């Protein structure tokens, strides 16, 4: 373990033990007697700096990340009474969110939520005391201040995405603060975004361009990280949920002040586009580029087709320091590969209760991916969409993706490479798991309870028959023992930034040349032709990319495909105001208990989602509103 990782983890554990039960209203420092000690020298102050990072690192637990758990990209059984983790995040799409005890409650740090208000208090304490260490150099002091301002901005931003109008914790309360002083008011959404952007603008100039000492500082914030996050912040502020949303036109605080602007501001998209382009320029200046080189570690005889699939897998699971596309990830590694890898060996069945393979992808998510012609399967003139659930036998032409001679669904044939890289399915090739030669590669056998990957006990059943293969390192092995080769879940990748720029540019200027350029960069890595050529040659709607509205739909689908399972869709679908539409239809899987292909490939409903207009924003716990008469409940709750 790297020295900085050990030090940071120790700080996180101490912070979790001492702060996890605190309430957000307690923003008066409780550690006044120890501040002199905490900032007596550089080393002690650095420990406090790491405590400011601690909450950020806790956000890497994806089951508690609203962007990951609430997007319906991955569904989870609600019958497990799970001992692996608290599944409240996954259950939110079932309509189980309440005002009495909100799920993923980041306001009060309950039900899977971390303590954001405590994190903000620590950041303010750091800034208030940064002058005390007498052996802290001026250059390091500037950098630390910039890092803490970034963290302070991000914690506020995280809360804005969930709750909308935010209580801005610009400074801590004094020790003898009155009850009225502690009860702070929420700022409007526009003021909330303006504040976090101002913090980012203050932080960016003093952040390092790159991390020079990777052994001791990897994971700390750089200028290109901050510029990329600022671009995402501005894009979120410009998006329909927050930019002139008529659903919130009458939402005011208890003094009658509007908390949302009812006026759409087109200039917000221009600001977002400019910030995206500036971030791209900085990232590329520091050597970042799309991950395009096939992995060479432990790979034997592999066809060019499969090498392309492995490249698309490795861009997520390769080591951080070896991934030229990774803008930002957190120090904690993704800890759920035992939920994403199907059982493929006889010995693996003995570990089913420990590594249950229960992260399930709905059929609708599998159908999100394009055909191999680069257009949606329901638009492709050559794709047999109406008969997609009929069966077809794997042949030599598709042997790199589908087991030759195995009967599977027609919908699994003639798909784009990201489909094969991201989703495990019955009959699909699963390279790795200890076999490094394509000729002996495993394939998934999922039909019925007697199949290796099929339903076993209640706690070891994938309820749809699709696995998020993207979240499994091909070097991890699920056999008589489970050997995990860890990776860091990206929070931002260059491909995502390219698509963010394309989106903002299309919204501000329409379908200009650069919009196509940056979408097509991402598509080319996936083996697809450009948007215009693909739609012109294969789509039933060839003019779609020529309009802002048509190109908007294309960009949204491109982001959902490219960033699938990375914790982005839950936020994207909210800010676009599209999650209600996605969850208006039943989520389906295959008939997993059927052993014969003709019966297995009959979609069945696994979840009937419940999502209303109110669910775009989190509720504030009722007891908080009772305590603080400056608060009122979010709309429609």
TrEMBL record:
Residues 98-223 form the SusD-like N-terminal domain. Keywords: Cell outer membrane, Membrane, Signal. It comes from the Bacteria. Coiled coil: none annotated. It is found in: Cell outer membrane. Its main location: membrane. InterPro entries: SusD-like_N (IPR033985), SusD_RagB_dom (IPR012944), TPR-like_helical_dom_sf (IPR011990). Pfam families: SusD-like_3, SusD_RagB. Residues 324-637 form the RagB/SusD domain. SUPFAM superfamilies: TPR-like (SSF48452). Belongs to the SusD family. This is RagB/SusD family nutrient uptake outer membrane protein. It comes from Mucilaginibacter dorajii.
